[in-house]
C-alpha cells in the first residue's frame, strides 16, 4: 500500500507563514519527546497525583485495558488555558507549559490549513470548516503517550492499541517509532512508514460524517507483532474536534433519527460514554440514560465508529 506524502513547501505563498511555523514545530519534536520521556520516567505516585479529568487534562494510565496498554498525559482545553488548570502536576512548570501551548498552537495552524484544503477541493469556501473549529468545547487535545516495554505480555484480550477510529475531525500524529497500522478498504492492515520530519494525518469520524463519507475515517491500531513487549514507543497525537454545536451535515448526509441535523455534541457524547464509561451491561442505551435511544441506534449504524463497549479489565504495567 502506497501512503500519500504531501510536502508543505508546495503550498501557495499565502500559506508561507503557517508552513514555516509547522516546519519549526517539526524541528522541535525532539524537545517535546524529551519532555514526554522525562515525565513518564517519574515515579507513579507523582505522575498519578493529577488524574485525567473531563476537560480532558491530566495523567491517564500505567494500566492496561481492553483498549490499550499505555500511559498518557493529556492537554485539552481551548488555546491559552492550560496555565489556568489545577489538574496539571507542578512538574509542568511555567516554561514547560508555555512550550506545550506553543506546540499546540502550531498544530492548530496545520489543522486549519488541512481543513481549508479539504473545503476548497469539495467546492466549498476555503474557511468553511474553520468557523466550527474555534477551539470551544470540547477543544483540541494534545496528548503524550508511552507504550511501555513489559517483562511479559498481558493476556490476549489486551492489545497494544485496539483498532479504532478517532472521534473528531483530524488527528495529527507525531512519532519517531514504527508500529502504527491502518486498515485499507479491503480490510488489510498496513504498517505506516516512519519518515523523518513527517506528520501522519488521520481522518476522524466527525469529518467523515460531515463530508457524507467522502473522506473516510482512518481505522488504526498497534499490534504486539508490530510493537513487541520488549520495546517502548512514544507518540504525540493532536486530536482536533469541531465545536459541540456544529451540524455535521452537508447535502450528502441525512438528518439524525429524530429528523434533526446531527450535531457533533450527539456523536461526541455517545463515543465518550462508550469508550470511558464503566459498562457491565451490553445494552448501552440502558446504561447511559442521557443518550437518546434513537440517536444511539442511528449512530451505531453510520459505519464510521468502532468504539464498542469496553470491558474494564485492568492490569498493572
From TrEMBL:
Transmembrane segments: none annotated. GO terms for molecular function: dioxygenase activity; metal ion binding. It comes from the Eukaryota. The keyword Electron transport does not apply. Keywords: Dioxygenase, Iron, Metal-binding, Oxidoreductase. It holds the Pfam family 2OG-FeII_Oxy. Residues 138-242 form the Fe2OG dioxygenase domain. Belongs to the iron/ascorbate-dependent oxidoreductase family. This is Oxoglutarate/iron-dependent dioxygenase.
Amino acid at each position: 500500500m502506497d501512503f500519500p506524502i504531501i510536502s508543505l513547501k508546495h503550498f501557495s505563498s499565502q500559506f508561507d507563514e503557517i508552513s514555516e511555523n509547522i516546519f519549526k514545530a517539526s524541528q522541535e519534536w525532539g524537545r517535546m519527546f524529551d519532555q514526554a520521556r522525562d515525565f513518564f520516567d517519574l515515579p507513579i505516585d507523582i505522575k498519578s497525583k493529577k488524574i485525567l479529568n473531563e476537560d480532558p487534562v491530566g495523567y491517564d494510565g500505567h494500566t492496561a485495558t481492553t483498549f490499550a496498554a499505555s500511559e498518557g498525559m493529556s492537554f485539552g482545553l481551548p488555546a491559552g488555558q492550560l496555565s489556568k488548570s489545577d489538574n496539571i502536576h507542578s512538574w509542568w512548570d511555567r516554561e514547560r507549559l508555555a512550550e506545550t501551548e506553543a506546540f499546540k498552537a502550531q498544530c492548530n495552524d496545520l489543522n486549519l490549513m488541512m481543513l481549508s484544503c479539504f473545503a476548497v477541493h469539495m467546492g466549498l469556501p476555503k474557511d468553511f470548516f474553520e468557523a466550527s473549529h474555534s477551539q470551544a468545547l470540547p477543544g483540541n487535545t494534545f496528548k503524550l503517550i508511552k507504550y511501555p516495554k513489559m517483562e511479559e505480555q498481558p493476556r490476549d484480550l489486551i492489545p497494544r492499541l485496539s483498532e479504532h477510529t478517532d472521534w473528531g475531525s483530524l488527528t495529527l500524529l507525531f512519532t519517531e517509532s514504527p508500529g502504527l497500522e491502518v486498515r485499507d478498504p479491503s480490510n488489510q492492515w498496513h504498517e505506516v512508514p516512519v519518515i523523518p520530519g513527517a506528520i501522519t494525518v488521520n481522518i476522524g469520524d466527525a469529518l467523515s460524517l460531515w463530508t457524507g463519507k467522502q473522506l473516510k475515517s482512518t481505522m488504526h491500531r498497534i499490534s504486539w507483532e508490530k510493537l513487541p513487549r520488549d520495546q517502548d514507543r512514544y507518540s504525540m497525537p493532536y486530536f482536533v474536534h469541531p465545536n459541540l454545536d456544529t451540524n455535521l451535515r452537508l447535502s450528502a448526509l441525512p438528518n439524525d433519527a429524530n429528523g434533526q441535523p446531527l450535531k457533533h455534541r450527539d456523536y461526541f457524547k455517545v463515543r465518550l460514554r462508550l469508550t470511558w464509561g464503566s459498562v457491565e451491561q451490553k445494552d448501552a442505551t440502558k446504561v447511559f440514560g442521557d443518550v437518546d435511544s434513537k440517536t444511539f441506534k442511528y449512530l451505531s449504524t453510520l459505519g464510521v465508529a468502532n468504539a464498542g463497549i469496553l470491558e474494564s479489565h485492568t492490569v498493572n504495567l
